[in-house]
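During the reporting period the student researcher (J.K.) took over the structure-prediction task from the postdoctoral fellow and processed the backlog of single-chain submissions. One of the processed entries is reproduced below for the supervisory committee.
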Amino acid sequence: MTVMLIFTEGTILKHKGIIEDYNSYIPVGNAVGKIKIWKDQGAEIYYLTSRREKQEIEDIREVLKKYNFPDFHNLYFRKEGEEYHEVAEKLLPNVIVEDDCASIGGEGEMVYPHIREDIKSKIKSIVVREFCGIDHLPDKI
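J.K. obtained the following structure tokens:
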């Protein structure tokens, strides 16, 4: 089974108006359809949000639910003092799908570049342009 960790904001979700209005976020392109295709092939889907506050995390979870993202309940987040790569290292996915974080500093803000070297080779990194979606990615996992 393929375990996929997909970053939410900037990768599969975008703001409709005010950036901080997380419950009004919308899917980027046909992100839901693409993830459903992967899920139908047996992928186990997990999401990673940048949000840390309880209400903001719930807002993102509700958006995933509202738009019928597969496995919307599998939403991971950073706990106090935790970094993205630490969350990913605990899950140890086969694939990480994330955006390039262009608007907030690039690679320094991404997940995969900070994964421990001893496990990096076990994880496939897929990087998309921020807010451009995942529609162009292959259907086959």
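The committee noted the following: The CA atoms of residues 101 and 109 lie 6 Å apart.
J.K. will present the remaining backlog at the next meeting.
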